[in-house]
Amino acid sequence: MTTFPVAALPREIQARLVQAGFQAYYVGGCVRDWLRGVPCADVDIATNAGLEDITRLFPHAKIVGEAFSVALVDGVEVATFRQDGPYTDFRHPDYVRMVATIEEDLSRRDFTFNAMAMDAQGVLHDPYGGQRDLTDRMVRFAGAADQRLREDPIRAIRACRFAALIDGTLDEAARVAMQTHGALLGNVPRERIQFELNKILLLDQCGPALHLLEQTRLLPHMLPRVAVMVGVPQNVVHAEECWTHTVACVAGVHKKKLALRLAALLHDIGKPAARTTDDAGADHFYGHETTGVELAEQELRDLRYSNEIIAYVDEAIAEHLHRLMFREEMRDSTIRRLMSRLKVLPIRDLLRLQLADLRANFRVSYNEQEIRGLLTYALRRIRAIEAAQHALKITDLCITGADVMQHLGIGPGPQVGAALRFCFEQVLQQPELNTRADLLNLLQRCAAPPRG
By residue range, what is the domain housing residue 168? Predict the structure, then answer.
């Protein structure tokens, strides 16, 4: 029997319930996380007190699930013991019924290490061996794996995430059930799949979870256009096949930024469609970035991502081959042009994606000192351009459309935009021309009839 120190979790709410004559247990993730020695993100309490009892004891409680008898008390979710009826919509139980014991409540939960509870004396209640599974780093369903997945197929994705979270693996029953019932994800709202994918991508170690999604045959039901990358060779510039490279690229994005990790996940999505093989058996992927933008947008829209994230990822895919880090001969004007072309993707995020792409190439051997040198070089040039406050968009010019119309004696129309674009192109080449006087002189050149 495991006994927790009584100060392990905040005790005021549990203590008040117990003093009023009710049972009260910390349950689920907070117990799991305490056993793992990590901070508890959410604290949940299960009790035999009904919703009326909870709101009577805590008048400031907010009811967040009346049908499920759930209230929020000072950020802690307090819920009445319950069991769930059938899940005919593969998400919500058709009905719930309140039960008398913590053991009955724990029987409805997904995994063994989420089906643990701690009472007011700090004693662990662990009917499914969750503590042992945490020690063994094993993800095991509480009860029959098939039944748990038929109730809510999203649990298959959660199993992959938890396996990565505890640096563990799936037990055999879980693995077989997930491989067998992956198609049930077709019944799940796509927003829920997005939510779980986001959680995976934001893990410190997301690579193992992504590999498990493929190994358990879940990937085609989540990301069908991504799944076709599995097994696609890249034998000219990569030793690894496309999916292995992609996972390594995502894992190599050190900044935990969702849009950036999505860009890494999708940066080569166009390769299978763009693949050609020459007479020597070498694979080529000409134009895969253009094809990839279209496929990535379809994938992201299917999962109900926002227009802002889609625009960011599209731009990252379209630009990821412009390797400004690795070309010392690249002119500043070329770097300025790239910086001006980026609308929503920060130039430093493009560098981060390129670094991860580089680290994920198993054929080319770069050591970290070389990589840091390349990054330092690129950042030095970018910072110099930023410090000089060079014009990077048309609105940075020292003249406006009104100046163009007044100076050339024309009215509104396409000629105004053409004149500004002409000036902007000259300023990208020679940033010192961005003065009012020089730009007005440029306008005269733009408007002058050709000689001859």
Answer: 138-222
